Amino acid sequence: MTRLTKTIKLRDVAERAGVSQGTASNVFNRPELVREEVRSRVHAAAQALGYAGPSPKGRLLRAGKVNAIGVAAAEPLDYFFADPWARRLLREVAAVCDARGAGLALVSVGRGGPLGWGIESALVDGFLLRCAGRELLVEIAQRRGLPFVALSLDTAEPDVPAVDIDDFGGARDAARHLVALGHRHIAIIGIGLGDGPGRASPELARSTRFVNVRERARGFWAGLAEAGIGPEDVPILVGQDDGSMIGPALAELFQTSEVRPTALLAMSDRVALAALDWLNHQGLRVPGDVSVVGFDGVPEAEAAVPSLTTVEQPYRQIAERAVAAILDDAIPAGREVLPLSLVIRNSTGPAHKAD
Amino acid sequence: MTRLTKTIKLRDVAERAGVSQGTASNVFNRPELVREEVRSRVHAAAQALGYAGPSPKGRLLRAGKVNAIGVAAAEPLDYFFADPWARRLLREVAAVCDARGAGLALVSVGRGGPLGWGIESALVDGFLLRCAGRELLVEIAQRRGLPFVALSLDTAEPDVPAVDIDDFGGARDAARHLVALGHRHIAIIGIGLGDGPGRASPELARSTRFVNVRERARGFWAGLAEAGIGPEDVPILVGQDDGSMIGPALAELFQTSEVRPTALLAMSDRVALAALDWLNHQGLRVPGDVSVVGFDGVPEAEAAVPSLTTVEQPYRQIAERAVAAILDDAIPAGREVLPLSLVIRNSTGPAHKAD
DNA sequence: ACTGGTATTTGAATCGGTTCAAGAGCGGTC
DNA sequence: GACCGCTCTTGAACCGATTCAAATACCAGT
């Protein structure tokens, strides 16, 4: 579709209408400044030439503002539609952008260079960085020189603008909920703590480089501590966030423990859901035999059977704060923390009698 | 964050390095053309000035290619993350774009004007139009003058480039499947056929302006006709695609029919899933009492309990074809039709004895 | 006829790069 | 010493608009 007819530009229209280019520009952007007669003459010329209106490309250069924000992740682009958390958050980001008439571009950091569409080259006014563990993204974004906000940043660098959540508080609330229901034998299902199924030590959870994993662990312990339950009494299962290793880990836990746990505190809804699945297959009733609390509040948690009690992120607020940061030049000075809320559904209930 | 220091541009770097702007440009884009010594001099100057590399804005104007495609819908932006079908398709589109190093921008058609980010102003190389009934989108895209492809276009205009699916064939396969299982009393759950719960006449289904609804209906009838079942023997339930009116419609059907259907042919997975839900609540077993076939093949269909037999769209192929159309200038001449495939899961089984 | 004021238009600068024909510098040949 | 073939560099045009100070047109008032 190589155009032989070279593109018609504003200049051509102006020429044909017998006006200056400046006037032609005004016809399209500030019609009230142009006399009616001239206006229609220009429109007629545009019509005759098949001019579609000022090209955004040209405008951009002059105006500077693209009126769009980019969301970047280290994962491939389809992550934004495949991952439950990302999808849930992006939905709010999209809604906020829509309400403000701004565009939304998805950016993956994989291939960069002057060739591919990356943080270096995306035509946007700023970035929302979905960082998980790699501050790499932040570094690249800084290089680009556009405003950016990190979401769920995994490092505690104070000078990086970030909108984050109170993992500690949310986790503590989750633990308190179980404690209030009478649970005393509780296990944690972790994420990002290792490769194989099995258990992790509290030290590992305390020292992982993933800040939110650390904080969630600390929160769980803090809540349990209020009932006199110490970290050493709480097994930590190693799982992948995609839920792949939860089965074996749970099997080991339920077979070898002298006292089987009556409740599970998961560090993400995905692992919680995987646990739910495993429990169902084992014929264990939820919450009859085992209660389960998730983390994140993804839509799947609500749809699960039984629906999952979980600590929900304030998606809308995160989106609003982050988008405003970019669009209103209101970059947070450092890390801003938003509260989470415990949503109680049907996967938690009173502790049954200990065996 | 108004910058007082005015932006550093390539020209500044060139000046400071004592080379021409053209050479400076080459340093960043075609380093092999520049002598090592000069190259490092320019880099040093860039470093000193805090120059982040050529701005995409400038490049764009000259180069023409944005290297990104826009996906547009008439719905608000969050539709792309909230709607199961859109999300599923976008996931593939994203994957294809990622593989080609292209960007992905989401566009809603709501607010346009020179102000908001719409089809008129999005900085992309072309559009994928998710049309549902309104050729409005097509019209706007034509005006913009960029290449575009319509997805699931609801009009049969032959000159609009479109990547579409064989609704008729898919629906026929679904009907054949039920027939082969011995079902003879079958109802159709329609979409886009009206406002209230209740039934629609075959005439209505034949004349609706939604092409794919028409085609799916025709396909169902064609498959059933092979077993001697005529359209007049098949009630058509009116439902909203969001599943909201399925319950009442089904209730009416199951209470008033002299012969209760043993199987349901749904025009979308969403209504099928809603039907599944209703049946569960009524204590009717699927597929024991009633078999259900969906349409679209969204991820939720697989996750449902029981998993839903459905006619699956070739998402990957659609995405590949459509993205290639834009990025490779391979716009289809007219409507291209891709085949669907029946995925048999656990929501369909042999017909039980008629009551 | 001249003046002041308002409504339109114009022209030129700018935005930030890319591109490419033409020129400069240089080592080697005949 | 003139000429050739190379490798780098330069300079200027161009991409498609927006913007704004200055120029012009038009009109009422005196």
From TrEMBL, chains A, B:
Pfam families associated with the record: LacI, Peripla_BP_3
GO molecular function, one term: transcription cis-regulatory region binding
InterPro entries, A to Z: HTH_LacI, LacI/GalR-like_sensor, Lambda_DNA-bd_dom_sf, Peripla_BP_I
PROSITE patterns (alphabetical): HTH_LACI_2
Keyword Kinase included in the entry's annotation: no
Superkingdom of the organism of origin: Bacteria
Location of the HTH lacI-type domain: 8-63
Gene3D superfamilies in the record: 3.40.50.2300, lambda repressor-like DNA-binding domains (1.10.260.40)
Keyword Lipid metabolism tagged: no
Keyword annotations of the record: DNA-binding, Transcription, Transcription regulation
UniProt name for this protein: LacI family transcriptional regulator
